[in-house]
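User
Take a look at the entry that follows and flag anything odd:
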Amino acid sequence: MRSIDLSPLYRSFIGSDHLASLIDAATRAEKQSGYPPYNIELLADDKYRITMAIAGFGKDDVSIEVADNTLTISGNKQTDNDNADRKFLHKGISERNFERKFQLGDHVKVLAADLENGLLHIDLERVIPEAKKPRKIEIGSKLFENQ
């Protein structure tokens, strides 16, 4: 896959630097490896769940952070000196460190995270503020009263 340099376009993104950062994040996401594998589920109209397969990682090895509509999940496995003496005939369970980022939409909040049986579940919900929700206007009604 080829890499596209978007830095000359930043001069044109005056006041729209958020758009430029989204484009950069999208190109970086394409370069990520497939580790660890994950699913994104739609549980209800505005509820989602991200499930990641992180076998071998415990609660203390995983960090979950949300900043600027970006959910960052990173795993940092401490090397165990006891495992240095072990000899594997086949090692298929990867215990390498990882970092996976997800761009969250506006008004998406992380509700909970749980680690069970080697699967990390992160529940999300889109909470639309009352002012942004569509409302029905009756014909002939007055929205603003003269004071």
Observations:
- Residues 57 and 77 are 7 Å apart (CA to CA).
